[in-house]
Model the fold of this input.
Amino acid sequence: MALTTDDIKQIAHLARIGVDETTLEPLRADLSTVLELVEQLNAIDTNGVEPMAHPGNAELRLRPDMVSESDQRKTLQEPAPAVEQGYFLVPRVIE
Amino acid sequence: MYEKTLAEQSRMLANGECSSTELTKHYLDRIARLDTDLNSLVSVDADSALQGAEDADRKRKSSAPSNAEMPLLGVPMVHKDIFCVAGGRTTCGSRMLEHFNAPYSATVVNKLNDAGMVMLGKANMDEFAMGSSNENSYFGAVKNPWKRDCVPGGSSGGSAALVAARLAPVATGTDTGGSIRQPAAFCGLTGIKPTYGRVSRYGMIAFASSLDQAGPLATTAEDCAMVLQAMAGFDERDSTSSNEPVPNYMADLDKPINGLKIGVPEEYFSAGLDDGVATQVRAALAEFEKLGAKLKSISLPNQSMCIPAYYVVAPAEASSNLSRFDGVRFGYRCEDPVDLDDLYTRSRGEGFGAEVKRRILIGTYALSAGYYDAYYLQALKVRRLISDDFDAAFKEVDVIAGPTTPTPAFQTGAKTDDPIAMYLNDLYTVSANLCGLPAISMSCGEVDDLPVGLQLTGKHFDEARLLHAAHSYQQTTDWHRRMPAGIE
Done:
């Protein structure tokens, strides 16, 4: 399917990826080509075929609902760009 | 010492012919001399490597573990920079993680550490493991040691280049659509992608969770067997880790392969395959026949659908996995965001490279309302059909053989403007990921002084048979022993 640059803007918005005006057209061309490639899948009759989301038909394991990890808040927040009093900082959301 | 295989080095360490400190210094010196040109490593930690080597030497002296107990004790190695190492920088080849210090280590890192291996540094790679040439790294392209104007393959391109240049006897890699096997083929190495669930994915930065698997790249199948032995096994921290017992991969290596049934899919030798590669692969298959294997022509009718199905499934999973990079909890954050949306949008727009953005956008589109059934669901159904083809084939044969890649390594820059041409590198490798099957690539010839890879795909959890077959082939051929020029 041939996409438009408006489609690209919409997809980029859904993915929260900033795309500048100059790259819109090359992206549109690239993505349209990839979609053409994957649309070959439509030629296959898949009526009654069970989708395979995962190899090996693995059923997810359950474990006892018990605490297995210790509190590592400080360690895990170390790589964050901005932290204060144990919270992640983001720009003001509520005026 | 660098001409020796890992197995030989392991015996030398056990016999006291060399120490881990000597071996580690030897490789650190080689890295310092040779890697400024290759760019195969993104970080080297000489102090911690030498410390690890000293610990290994002390352990050899004090408790003298037998080589059967700790065959890897003191052997140097490199991790692909997708594996988290606690306290160390883990970049995944991305600006997004340029300054990321992992708070914990991957299970693979812990396991190889427990086995006594000495980590020299971290290998360059395509950003977030997306690529087939290692040209998508934020830290620059990697050169192929065989021909410096050619790519080493990807995404584990740094791992492959450094082992080919003998900067370490082994490196870890990850394989989502061919990222261990394709660079192994391009660089004249042996590389194995194990069965899905065989090696823990904990602490390995996720690209496509139903496809990703870790494995080793080394010069021989025996070396791969030794390292995979230490990497494999159940891990409570990976919800898709398998309980299947890990066999001894070394046990049957030297047995004959008499009667091994090798399936040769006609679809692997059709349009798109380089003539030179075809000739070398057919010669390798003839060699297997001489060793006692039986060749059988088979068909994988949905082979042509592997790349289309893969380029829906992998980007869809990537778009979901990579949503975690939000500029809030870890990774790159843009300057002076005006609001939350601006923070997300600019952090991701500036932090991700072109190919990663392309794939996230394709995945987002394929999963979006109105297109989910047409793209994603259809791809999952075709994935089932591809898997059924392999199940049917494995009723008749033990392994399936063919070329690892359609061509040998190509020139740097040759395919950067054409995503589809780049994706077709993985024509023969993505099926193993879609179906969760193990597959190994071994060097089986040369075309224009560049190595050619032969791929064997096996049944689920049949890694031992793949390693055994590759090892047998390597006993009567010497392609795996060849080294690029200019790495003395």
